[in-house]
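Workshop exercise sheet. Pairs work together: one partner reads the sequence aloud, the other fills in the structure field after running the prediction. Swap roles for the next sheet.
Pair: D.N. / O.F.
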Amino acid sequence: MIALGGLIVLTQPVAAQDGVICSASKLPQMLEGFFQLTTGLGLIGLVVVWQGDSLFQMFTTNHEQKAQLKEHMRTTLKSAVTLLVLGPLYTVAGSLMGLPLAQCVDLAPW
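Structure field:
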């Protein structure tokens, strides 16, 4: 009971500051730019790794190594999909949950 009361008292100032994040001069734009930059670099990394694995796969004769390269390519593709899904998911889920940052920052990479 004491913990619940303390939680209510401690979250009151935070709830009153919802507009602080959105009203910061450059913070929303900086976060959007950072997310777009990291997403772009992640996609470039995907292309580089995918092409490198494809090149190594052409010169590999061992079936075990080919299987490892295919698994690496699958893992790389899963990572890229995760990278592309996280931003829009945070934007939608954060808005539904009432997170203050999700209200003023659009993290969709497109």
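Discussion prompt: The CA atoms of residues 93 and 103 lie 10 Å apart. What would you look at next?
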